[in-house]
Specification:
Radius of gyration: 14 Å
Helix content: over 70%
Oligomer: single chain
Number of strands: 0
Structural class: mainly alpha
Number of helices: 6
């Protein structure tokens, strides 16, 4: 349970800082940390984002195919709400150039991790 809340908080903070969504943060976190299969990670991410981002129909398709962990989706959604607030506050103090560079480093780190884990 705590892993899903933590994923939600981190995703929320990064969303508040960089304006990014589930595909960049939640899906890789569910794959690497919660050891979800890729389709379940994607469906669960969409489930978490369904209420705040209005992706309900996409999440429903994954749910019908058995690829949504509803409990994890709801916990991640709670973390997103809290984390996005704090991430947005942090971004106000960091400045644009710091945010751009940090986002680039973050993307490269995720890309390298995904590349070598497949």
């Amino acid at each position: 349970m705590l892993i899903f809340l933590a994923i939600g908080v981190v995703a929320g903070v990064l969303s508040g800082i960089f304006g990014i969504g589930g595909g960049i943060v939640i899906v890789p976190a569910l794959i690497f940390l919660a050891r979800f299969p890729a389709l379940t990670a994607t469906g669960t991410s969409l489930g978490a984002l369904a209420i705040p981002a209005g992706i309900l129909l996409g999440a429903w398709s994954y749910y019908q195919a058995g690829h949504v962990n509803v409990r994890a989706s709801l916990l991640i959604a709670v973390g997103l709400a809290v984390g996005a607030y704090f991430g947005a506050q942090l971004a106000q103090y960091a400045g644009g150039h710091v945010i751009k560079r940090a986002f680039a480093v973050f993307l490269v780190a995720i890309a390298v991790r995904m590349w070598f884990s497949s």
